[in-house]
């Protein structure tokens, strides 16, 4: 079992497979008996729309959220679920920064192609985890 229960899937490269990966991993855990919730923090709402179709994601709960207070909301859900996975947008925005700030793991899908492999924009975003909360904060 993975150590840590809050996972955020994030990269500033659009179309890299964030939503596919977040949805597949969530459904896998859900179907294997782990209490899992998938948060759709992308305004495109791709996974939320799929989740609305009956049984499309195997009955996995999918939440749409607003960026305000998202870090605290994720932390609260972590007390209720085995895994909290957040799918983020392919551009920098407050929801992505909040979801990274509370994450135990940040998963960065990268297609093995020259145009996809640069993390120039994503890595500073990931580093924001260590700047967005005051020293001594919970995470
Ligand atoms: N492992 C994979 N193998 C092959 N194709 C994939 C894989 N993962 C995703 N895809 C395809 O790549 C495309 C983009 O996937 P997806 O929507 O998950 O990316 P995304 O990073 O969430 O995009 P966005 O930045 O727009 O939110 C889709 O057509 C999807 O079917
Ligand atoms: Mg997506």
**Number of DSSP-assigned strands:** 5
Q: Can you identify the CATH superfamily? A: P-loop containing nucleotide triphosphate hydrolases
Q: CATH class, anyone?
A: Alpha Beta
Low-confidence stretches: none
Order of helices and strands: EHEHEHEHEH
Q: Can you list the strand order of the major beta sheet? A: 3-2-4-1-5
- What's the main sheet like? 5 strands, parallel
Description:
This protein has 139 residues and is α/β, with parallel strands linked by helices. 32% of the residues lie in helices and 14% in strands. It is built from five helices and five strands. Strand 2 (36-40), helix 2 (46-52) and strand 3 form a beta-alpha-beta unit. The radius of gyration is 14 Å and the shape is globular. The model has no long low-confidence stretch (mean pLDDT 89). Adenosine-5'-triphosphate is lined by residues 14-20, 42, 44, 46, 90.
Describe the protein's topology.
Layout: E1 6-9, H1 18-31, E2 36-40, H2 46-52, E3 62-64, H3 70-78, E4 83-87, H4 94-101, E5 105-107, H5 122-127
Parallel strand pairs: 1-4, 1-5, 2-3, 2-4
The structure holds adenosine-5'-triphosphate (ATP) and magnesium ion.
Explain briefly what this protein structure is:
32% of the residues lie in helices and 14% in strands. It has helices at 18-31, 46-52, 70-78, 94-101, 122-127, and strands at 6-9, 36-40, 62-64, 83-87, 105-107.
Features:
binds magnesium ion, Rossmann fold, globular, 5 strands, 5-stranded parallel β-sheet, 139 residues, single chain, binds adenosine-5'-triphosphate, alpha/beta, 32% helix, 5 helices
